[in-house]
């Protein structure tokens, strides 16, 4: 079917009666079956092209679906639709409909019209995975607001920052000492969490906070993490990045039994490697981790940098939306530094998407990746943090002012209703 469509597309374009013929051929191919096993997972999404807009502006694909876009040109002039990889429709005449097979959407992408000037004039949209999660927090359908409404909504968000919300994640957890062992109790339970002002989402948390409490120990410490499961489902805990005995690795069915609802499991080990690490659920993890079952596990080594502040930036995406330390803009907390101060920021990505973290005005010097010092620190203004990855950077507060600090996948940071999600600020003031 696909190759038949491509041949038809080429012929159609050459012969100059493209769109009608193509759409008929494409529909016939689709309707005629022959899709085989993939058909069960097929998803067809309606997309409307207008004169200098694409609707919806945020096209949501289901995870793992074989996606086809059904593109209708409702405008008065001809348009097309292209994927970033160059796959595109032929020119679509006014009033006509064409199918474009996309396949599995692995990552957020921008789709656009290639007619010269149309993309610049606004004919682009985001095609994102996650069944709509990628657009969580988007309160307004693109195109629904007037310019004045957009301005007002944007400025209201800025004015509200930093907004107060109930609950703070990542607070330090002091251990109890038992025969020289540092004992940390963590209880997993469901929670309602205020991600942004008035935006209360159902999540899962350790000790009632997202991220969970921050555990900070030193190299060589003997630790015991006591996990209590107050969830309605089983869980387990993995110490991501730490060198532990296999039996303490937290993978149910492989290294330990499931921790059933109501049960407790103790993880005992000696801390053998320093750096920025994480702990998180390793059961139904694609749900439990983005829902909030995660936290920072920091191990002080012999050569810690001297810094005025040590800041965490735990990145997450999923049912709680795009968040930094469990909150979305304007409820994110700015980093406030005095001129000349040196700050360590420890990024950790507990989400399932990549987040390039961009800081305006100041540079970020990468000093460690996944808890290991890099042989030669290097400077970036945009630091890529992949799922599961930790990146430590040093930032010197050299330039006074309020510097925007955000994920540079812009759909994680802004909609036409203003900034949201992975946006905060680095404020340098005396
Ligand atoms: Cu992002």
Tell me about this structure:
By secondary structure, the chain is mainly beta. It folds into 3 domains: 130 residues, Cupredoxins -  blue copper proteins (Immunoglobulin-like), CATH 2.60.40; 156 residues, Cupredoxins -  blue copper proteins (Immunoglobulin-like); 138 residues, Immunoglobulin-like, CATH 2.60.40.420. The chain is 11% helix and 40% strand. The chain contains 4 helices and 29 strands. The strands form 7 sheets. It has a 6-stranded mixed beta sheet, with no helix packed on it. Strands 8, 9, 10, 12 and 14 form a 5-stranded mixed beta sheet that branches. The longest helix is centred in the first third of the chain and has 14 residues. The relative contact order is 0.11. The N terminus is likely disordered. Copper (II) ion binds next to loops.
């Amino acid at each position: 079917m696909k190759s038949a469509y491509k041949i038809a597309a080429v012929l159609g374009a050459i012969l100059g009666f493209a769109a009608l013929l193509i759409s008929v051929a494409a529909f016939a191919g689709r309707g005629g079956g022959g899709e085989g096993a993939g058909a069960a997972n097929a998803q067809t999404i309606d997309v409307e092209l207008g004169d200098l807009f694409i609707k919806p502006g945020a096209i949501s694909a289901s995870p793992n679906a074989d996606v086809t876009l059904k593109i209708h040109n409702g405008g008065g002039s001809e348009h097309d639709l292209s994927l970033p990889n160059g796959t595109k429709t032929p020119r679509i005449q006014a009033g006509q409909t064409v199918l474009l097979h996309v396949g599995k959407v692995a990552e957020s992408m921008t789709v656009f019209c290639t007619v010269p000037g149309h993309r610049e004039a606004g004919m682009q949209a985001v095609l994102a995975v996650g069944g709509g999660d990628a657009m969580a927090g988007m309160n307004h359908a693109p195109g629904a607001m007037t310019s004045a409404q957009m301005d007002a909504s944007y400025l209201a968000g800025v004015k509200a920052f930093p907004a107060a919300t109930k609950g703070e994640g990542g607070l330090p957890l002091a251990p109890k000492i038992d025969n020289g062992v540092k004992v940390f109790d963590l209880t997993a339970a469901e929670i309602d969490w205020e991600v942004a002002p008035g935006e209360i989402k159902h999540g899962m948390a350790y000790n009632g906070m997202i991220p969970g409490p921050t555990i900070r120990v030193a190299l060589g410490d003997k630790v015991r993490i006591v996990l209590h499961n107050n969830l309605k489902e089983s869980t387990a805990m993995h110490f991501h990045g730490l060198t532990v005995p296999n039996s303490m690795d937290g993978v149910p069915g492989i290294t330990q039994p499931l921790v059933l609802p109501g049960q407790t499991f103790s993880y005992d080990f000696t801390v053998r490697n320093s750096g920025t690490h994480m702990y998180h659920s390793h059961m139904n993890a694609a749900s439990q981790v983005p829902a909030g079952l995660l936290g920072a596990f920091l191990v002080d080594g012999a050569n810690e940098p001297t810094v005025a502040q040590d800041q965490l930036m735990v990145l997450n995406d999923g049912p709680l939306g795009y968040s930094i330390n469990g909150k979305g803009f304007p409820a994110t907390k700015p980093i406030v530094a005095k001129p000349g101060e040196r700050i360590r920021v420890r990024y950790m990505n507990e989400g399932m998407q990549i987040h390039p973290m961009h800081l305006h005005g100041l540079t970020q010097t990468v000093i460690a990746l996944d808890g290991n010092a890099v042989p030669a620190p290097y400077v970036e203004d945009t630091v890529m943090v992949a799922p599961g990855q930790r990146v430590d950077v040093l930032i010197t507060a050299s330039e006074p002012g309020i510097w925007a600090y955000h994920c540079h996948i812009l759909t994680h940071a802004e909609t036409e209703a203003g900034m949201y999600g992975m946006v905060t600020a680095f404020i340098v003031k005396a």
